[in-house]
Amino acid sequence: MIEKRNLFILVVTLWTGFVAPAAAKSGDPDAGAEIYTQFCIHCHGEEGDAVTETADRLNPPPRDFTTAQYKIKATDFEDDFPNDLDLFRMIRDGMPGSAMPGWSDVLSDQQIFDLVAYIKIFAGLEEEELGPSMEYGEQIAISAESIEQGKRLFHEGDRCSECHGKEGRGDAIKGLKDDAGFRTWPRNLTKPWNFRASNDPKDIFTRISTGIPGTQMPAFADPTSDKQLTAEERWHVANYVNSLAKTERVVRPENTVVKADHVNGELPDAVDDPLWEKTEPSTFFLVPQLIGEERFFTPSNDTITARALYSDTEFAILLEWDDRTKSIPGDETAEKISDPEIAEDGVAIQLPVKIPEGSEKPYFGMGDATNPVTIWHWKSGTTDTPQSVNLINATGFENIEQRDAASLSITAQGFYQDGTWRVIMKRPRSGVDKEKDIELIEGKAIPIAFAAWDGSNSEQGSRHTMTAWYWLLLKPDIGARPIVSAAFAGFLVFGVLLWWQRSASSKRATKDV
Amino acid sequence: MRKIPRLLQAVLVIGFVYAAFVVVFDVFLEQVIPASLLTMYMFFVIAGVFMVFTFTEESTRELVAPIKALVEDPSRKAIRNIVFAVLPLAVAAYTYFSTLPSYQAPVELRSIHPAPPSTVRAFEKRYDLLTLENPFRKYEKEDPEKFKQLVVEGGNVYTSNCQFCHGDKLDGKGPYAQGLNPVPLNFQDVGTIAQLQESFLFWRIATGGPGLPKEATPWSSSMPVWQKFLTEDEIWKVILYLYDYTGHQPRSWQHD
User: Fold this and answer.
1) What does R_g of chain A's alpha carbons equal in angstroms?
2) Strand partners, A462
3) pLDDT class for A190, splitting at 50, 70, 90?
4) According to the model, what pLDDT value does residue A331 have?
5) CA pair distance A389, A251, nearest whole angstrom
6) Per the CB < 8 Å rule, is B169 touching A360?
7) Which of residues 252-281 of A touch B (CB under 8 A)?
């Protein structure tokens, strides 16, 4: 029912997104100023220049209204500025993937237009004649043919793949900066929840047509560009980009359990082994580490996907996450595109040392004094050192014991391709030391948490992304029990019915005699 | 008018009550009725219907007559064969699916507003929560200009520290909220800070998740231990901001 409600909200949002309001209303800048002071100054600043304490902790940073440069506009590509409706929509619907929320539940349409009138003053736009919304031509419905056409245009002459990458993960051109000098990345098109407008083909069409001002995203409606696309072609590309979101690596909030399948014999070493394909993936949100010194505010990774397998003796987990950069310290290209200090990429899983019997677990931030955790931490290596895996036992941030992963036969191997890391970690199900190593018992819900480091985003040590506690379950072999019970119940009912019918008819026969 | 057979009546009554439960809870109250609760309710409903419909011997006979006829009447052979095939299969299928393991996460219960301790240690001091008051609250009446300034300062502390999870609009929907479990509190909700004293908030902010008692699962709360990152004054200012922004009033001993 909750989902139905979300669907309802979505439908209403989409409906209002396209239908209302049809035209911009004029706003009262004085009323807007009051609203601005109440809700906006903490990020955008009293002067509208986004020079605030908060701004330093936000990536992307809050908009500096004094520049008049806005990324999301639906005016023609030749217009420098968005129009009132564009600004209205950014405030009403917010900017997904940033800290800007939608304000429709707090402010009325009129109040939002008041705000629009006010923020235009910061850049002297209030006198400017702003352009109308662009021409959309005839929208082409989503279809297999259209998506196929779009795919061809996307890759033709490296038109879009030049930056967005072969698989659309935004991994091709690295280390871009916007006009204000902030680091920007081509959008990972397989993650539509970060699209600043939305994943609707019409919004994608708008971005393709008019570009994203202030960034390297060009306007493909521009006839002077050698990569220009007709309106019809842009609809095909929009439909293709929309289709890229349909991956199985999306967060399903109701799925909090990594379910490990049982395998007879050896567990796979290769990431493309068909056994992994058959295993159900579980994807979780990664959030930056904000609970211990040093806190981290500007992450680049936002999800991680896990699949697990186990045999009678061994356990293996495949971790996948999108990372636009393969960060190898010492590597010339990697160094060039990195933030000042490059570190290795990394990933870790955290498990309790003892599977909890009751509800009490170790503290999710590296355990606590009474409940230790064990952490397997893989690192991508440098030009001088190969990939490595560390074994850590901890009872809190400050109490860390580095152990020898080899002594426990933990192995980890990572593979990087087209903007995705895939790392397989393996360990025997039984540990060496009962006081320090978890016994991976099938059929028990085992707390598990994840962490990831993007070395090109200055992530190392406590600067990383992480998850809350989730669950790992080695799915017990159920054998023939359900089949046997089902057959038993079915035959029992059938037998009782038959006996009833038989005894009734034999009674009748006796009576007849 | 033709009389509806007693058996069909009974089935209809049960079906109607079941549908009513689902409609009232799921649709009108928007609160999905837990399966275990529904099972319990339906047990009583079925037992009640059965008692009413078998009140006299005659009514009992009327109730079971169609079933008896189906099994025993030689003229109903065709339909009987169908029922004899379908019913055992249905029971078998039900048994099969209910014996399959679901691999669901274990159910975890947690108290959202645990009882506060009488004293709290933070900032290397001991606070008595019964008498602890927000030192800036008095300016609301004494010096409104200064109070307004304190609220703005609290807002700056909030947006650069708290909004990541609790949200710009204090609705518990910050950019990282969906990655947390348990989810961040929604301060707009009348069931959160509107029910609490400022001293309770001070305790919850200063000692964070790890400062919770066990019934509130301190091991899973993502709330940082803010005495590590904020000063005492900053915490009190944030508290002013929370109440000012949402329009809620803190509970206090005087007004209650």
Assistant:
1) 28
2) none
3) very high
4) 85
5) 27
6) no
7) 253, 256-257, 259
CA distance B193 to A276: 47
A106 contact B CB<8A: yes
**Which chain A residues have a beta carbon less than 8 Å from that of B26?**
1
What pLDDT, on a 0 to 100 scale, did the predictor assign at position A330? 87
Neighbours of A298 (CB within 10 A): 17
Model confidence at A458: pLDDT above 70: yes
CA dihedral B107, B113, B118, B122 (to 10 degrees): 90
Asked if A101 and B186 count as a contact pair (C-beta separation under 8 A), the reply is: no
Per-residue pLDDT at A16: 47
Is the dihedral angle over the CA atoms B193, B199, B200, B201 positive or is it negative?
positive
A42-76 pLDDT, tens digit each: 999 999 999 999 998 998 899 999 998 899 999 99
Closest to A100 measured CA to CA, from A194, A203, A181? A194
| Closest chain B residue to the Cα of A283, Cα to Cα | B179
CATH of domain A144-243: 1.10.760.10
* Number of continuous H segments (helices) and E segments (strands) in chain B: 9, 2
pLDDT over 70 (residue A18): no
CATH of domain A257-474: 2.60.40.1190
Tell me if B224 and A256 make a contact (CB, 8 A cut-off): no
- Cβ-defined contact of A476 to B101 (cutoff 8 Å): yes
Count the domains in chain B. Answer: 2
pLDDT (0 to 100) of residue A33: 97
From CA A61, how far away is CA A285, in angstroms rounded? 21
User: What mean pLDDT value characterizes chain B?
Assistant: 91
**Is B168 within 8 Å of A99 when comparing Cβ atoms?**
yes
A36 CB within 8 Å of a chain B CB: no
Whole-prediction pTM: 0.85
Question: Residue A493 is inside which H or E element, if any?
Answer: helix A481-512
Q: Give CA B79 to chain center in angstroms.
A: 47
Question: Chain A residues with CB inside 8 Å of B165's CB?
Answer: 290
Fold of domain A16-127: Cytochrome Bc1 Complex; Chain D, domain 2 (1.10.760)
On whether the CB atoms of residues A474 and A438 are closer than 8 A, the answer is: no
Residue A1 has pLDDT above 50, yes or no: no
Q: Give me the residue from A2, A359, A364 closest to B108, CB to CB.
A: A359
Any B CB within 8 A of A496 CB: no
CA distance B162 to chain A (A): 10
The minimal CB distance from B105 to the residues A360, A445, A467 is found for A445
User: Is A331 within 8 Å of A314 (Cβ atoms)?
Assistant: no
Residues of A in contact with B103 (CB under 8 A): 257, 259, 473, 475
Q: Which chain B residues contact residue A39 at CB under 8 A?
A: 168
Q: What is the ipTM of this complex?
A: 0.87
Q: What is the pLDDT of residues A112-165, one digit of tens each?
A: 999 999 999 999 888 888 888 999 999 999 999 999 999 999 999 999 999 999
| pLDDT on residue B252 | 83
Would you say A362 and A352 are in contact if contact means Cβ atoms under 8 Å apart? yes
* Same domain, yes or no: B150 and B237: yes
Give a yes or no: residue B138 inside a domain. Answer: yes
Give the phi and the psi of residue A271 in degrees, each rounded to 5: -70, -25
Residue in chain B nearest A261 by alpha carbon: B103
DSSP code for A157: G
Q: Are residues B123 and B30 in the same domain?
A: no
Q: Supply the range of the domain harboring residue B22.
A: 6-99
On chain A, the residues whose CB falls within 8 A of the CB of B84 are: 494, 497-498, 501
Q: List B119's β-bridge partners, or say none.
A: B128
What φ, ψ does residue B191 adopt, rounded to 5°? -90, 5
- Residue A236 has what pLDDT? 97
Give chain B positions within 8 Å (CB) of A360: 214, 219
- Quick one: average pLDDT of B251-256? 68
